[in-house]
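can u do me a favor
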């Protein structure tokens, strides 16, 4: 059996995962806790780490049964074939999640336009706005200085 990646409708990850579990399909849909602040209160939400995606471990010949679940759109494909995720990769994600690592939460917030506080390096504790994110580099605008800087993601977060 292999892990496949399902593309699901937006904000349907939890519902799809629960339905697939009831169908005895092994599912992995990691979530992170985020604090959302409104003008009058704060609320802690549990949001999917991979928005619009759910991992399923299923035999190749039974791949079609997932389409009986409302909210499932399609499988994610890579080079003309359904994308397969190795067991080791799923285990690494599970390990990160069990350790309660802040790295995943921090990386999930690196969206252009979002405000961050730099946690490491020369600009530690400086407020910045994410300008651009590449594979391993991030460009950000330092608010107080009005300067755009670039650094390795690992050196900032």
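np, heres the sequence
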């Amino acid at each position: 059996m292999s892990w496949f990646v399902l593309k699901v409708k937006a904000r349907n990850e939890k519902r799809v995962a629960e339905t697939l579990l009831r169908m005895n399909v092994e599912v992995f849909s990691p979530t992170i806790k985020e604090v959302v602040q409104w003008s009058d209160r704060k609320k802690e939400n549990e949001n999917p780490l991979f928005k619009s995606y759910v991992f399923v471990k299923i035999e190749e010949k039974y791949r079609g049964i997932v389409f009986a679940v409302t909210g499932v759109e399609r499988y994610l494909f890579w080079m003309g074939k359904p994308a397969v995720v190795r067991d080791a990769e799923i285990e690494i994600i599970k390990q990160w999640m069990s350790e309660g690592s802040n790295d995943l939460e921090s990386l999930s917030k690196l969206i252009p336009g979002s405000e961050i506080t730099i946690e490491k390096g020369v600009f530690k504790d400086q407020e910045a706005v994410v300008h651009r994110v590449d594979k391993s580099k991030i460009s950000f605008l330092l608010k107080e200085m009005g300067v755009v800087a670039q650094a390795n993601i690992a050196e900032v977060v």
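The mean pLDDT is 84. hope that helps!!
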